[in-house]
Amino acid sequence: MFASAKTIMPDPSQALPGRDRVMPVPDRHLVLGRPLLPPFPASCQSMLVGMGCFWGAERRLWSLPGVWVTAVGYAGGFTPNPTYEEVCSGRTGHNEVVQVVFDPVELPLAALLRVFWESHDPTQGMRQGNDVGTQYRSGLYVTNAEMRQTALDSRQAYGEKLAAAGLGAITTEIIDAPAFYYAEAYHQQYLARNPNGYCGLAGTGISCG
């Protein structure tokens, strides 16, 4: 019953109140050595992605050539500056996301989206594998109109491939990027600190190519 309740977005009026205090985060990315906080280089673009547990998603993304920096956090909900425990309660509406800042010359958006689609299962709704709850939903949170259209087109194309393979419909939400709240310091680059830690990524096995 509790797991089922966690798959339903809370009503904004019933969401946890949160706080004004922002989460302190490390100054630098543990792997890439660059600042986690903006401003970022003018040549870069940014996007928030939800692919299930953000530990494995961040490691997959920071390893891509052309990614300038990554950070994990919470977005798409109602509670300001939530804690991890609050997000896990299902009462904030937030998704676990990775903020990925990338150079589109080195890493075109289409290539980044291909990694996104192929690195998780975007058909599962409010879950990813054994991880169940609104915080594990598939999501792309875009920062400009061109990025939104490219994301929508890629969803359509990948959805057709999944349908041809007899798999379910894509449930990925694609919306303008909402407020991004950095997660606690121990979550940042978690799998660099804990190489044998839980990853959680599992794709459909269907290539975008």
Keywords summarizing the entry:
Met_Sox_Rdtase_MsrA_sf; Peptide Methionine Sulfoxide Reductase, Chain A; 209 residues; two-stranded antiparallel ribbon; globular; oxidoreductase; 25% helix
Report on this model:
The protein has 209 residues and is an alpha+beta fold. It has one domain (39-189): 2-Layer Sandwich (Peptide Methionine Sulfoxide Reductase, Chain A). It has helices at residues 2-5, 54-62, 84-88, 109-118, 145-164, 190-193, and strands spanning 45-51, 67-75, 95-102, 127-128, 131-132, 138-142, 173-176, 180-182. It has a six-stranded mixed β-sheet with strand order 7-6-1-3-2-8, covered by helices on one side. Strands 4-5 form a two-stranded antiparallel sheet. Strand 4 and strand 5 form a beta hairpin. It is globular and about 45 Å long.
CATH fold topology: Peptide Methionine Sulfoxide Reductase, Chain A
Task: Going across the biggest sheet, name each strand in turn.
Answer: 7-6-1-3-2-8
| Total number of distinct structural domains | 1
Number of helices: 6
Report on the biggest sheet: 6 strands, mixed
GO molecular function: L-methionine:thioredoxin-disulfide S-oxidoreductase activity; peptide-methionine (S)-S-oxide reductase activity
Organism: Magnetospirillum gryphiswaldense (strain DSM 6361 / JCM 21280 / NBRC 15271 / MSR-1)
Function: Has an important function as a repair enzyme for proteins that have been inactivated by oxidation. Catalyzes the reversible oxidation-reduction of methionine sulfoxide in proteins to methionine.
Pfam family, one: PMSR
